Amino acid sequence: MFGNIFWNVVRFGLAAAFLVLFFYLALAPKTYYTDAVIEGDSMGTFYSIKVSGIPMTVDNRELSRAIQETLDRIDRAMSTYKPDSEVCRFNASDSTDWFPVSPETAAVVSLALDISTLTDGAFDITVAPLVQRWGFGAGADSRSRPPGAEELETVRNTVGFRHLRVHPDSGAIKKDIPELQIDLSAVAKGYAVDQVARTLDTLKIDSYMIDIGGEVRCRGAKMDGSPWRIGIEVPQPDVPGADPNIFMAVELKDVALATSGDYRDFQERDGVRYSHIIDPRTGEPTERTLPGEAVPTERLGSVSILDPSCARADALATAFFVLGEIRGLELAERAGIPALFLSRSTDVSKPIRKAASQTFPR
Ligand code: AMP
Ligand code: MG
Known about the structure:
By secondary structure, this protein is of the alpha+beta class. It has helices at residues 2-27, 60-78, 86-92, 103-118, 128-133, 149-156, 188-202, 310-335; strands at 36-42, 45-51, 99-100, 164-167, 172-175, 208-212, 215-219, 228-233, 246-252, 255-261, 266-269, 272-275, 278-279, 284-285, 288-289, 298-307, 339-345, 352-356. A hairpin with a 4-residue loop joins strand 4 and strand 5 (172-175).
């Protein structure tokens, strides 16, 4: 009799313990790792993705694979280096008929055209032939002489966002002149960041920092509750082997930060320095310092933009670099865009000057 009661208590105790364990496993935070880092190369650049807390249902290899697949998919469609990408095939075609592309490429072209309209053509993905002629990107000959006025005029006649049209719904783009070509380099990295964010969201990962070639987007906070902090670099060429100098850090939560500048991607030929960003209004690089030319006392070095969409931030950063500080700030204030302009100065007491729109964090 006493024995029966004892065994019933034991059974009841065990059942209760199992129930507690079951609910604990079901309800406990489903995290394995803290701060997993996934790094690699894609789209001609380096990427680094930090994830704080991975759900139990996702293993690290699956996560890396999902990220790489996302990036490869975008690269296959938008690369200017892969001859069979949608962009390269569109560029090689001289047909002025509608050209079918993936919904993703159509969406990026559509966004690019919106930014061209907003910035009055400072942003223009049809600058592709000028980018090549000035020695940048795929197929460029960086040793060739800079174009003369006449040649530049001929190339410029093949450029202009108003010659490009898009059907975002049916996924098709169209050129009005056979020579038109596009280059999505100023927006595709930001778009890739957004798509990696989507991939992580789908996997129910809610805390991450995605950095693809300097275009960054963050969600949530780190495991210890502290915010993601991203450094904005001093716009000066890297010193080999040294860490880049950070001008200021911004906290990012559910927002993207993109930066464009002349301090990393430029060329020097015969003592002349050329920036990779082209001013579509002149057809020339935004920066061109000729030998013997007086060095300006100040020069725009970088523009950083905050936006919920990294693709938009990426495109706007390039556009505002072309517009320059005065016109860029004017537009940023008018459109409520958080923008930071860093200029290099010959004034040794203040080598970097900062100007920011009202909405950019102080
Ligand atoms: P980013 O580093 O995002 O500023 O993009 C710069 C790249 O975009 C260049 O290397 C060119 O391939 C391309 N590009 C240059 N000038 C422009 C422009 N005005 N509008 C759009 N894309 C451009
Ligand atoms: Mg850009």
